[in-house]
Amino acid sequence: MIYQLKVKLKGVRPSVWRRLQVPSDMTFAEFHRVLQIAFDWDDDHLHTFYVTKTRGQKKGFFIQFV
């Protein structure tokens, strides 16, 4: 299965985002690499992947860069 994702940078104006298609069995490490390429980043920030839930339902998937 292929997931289509809209990845948007929070707090950036004008809005910066990418639409990505990734396989459902992709690991976080592989997804991290895809993001580095999609946004032309240099892999020089710490990051965390997390999923938020509302009333037991998945609400969103977020990556926090520190």
TrEMBL record:
SUPFAM superfamilies: MM3350-like (SSF159941). Residues 2-56 form the Plasmid pRiA4b Orf3-like domain. It comes from Anoxybacteroides tepidamans. InterPro entries: MM3350-like_sf (IPR024047), Plasmid_pRiA4b_Orf3-like (IPR012912). It holds the Pfam family PRiA4_ORF3. This is Plasmid pRiA4b Orf3-like domain-containing protein.
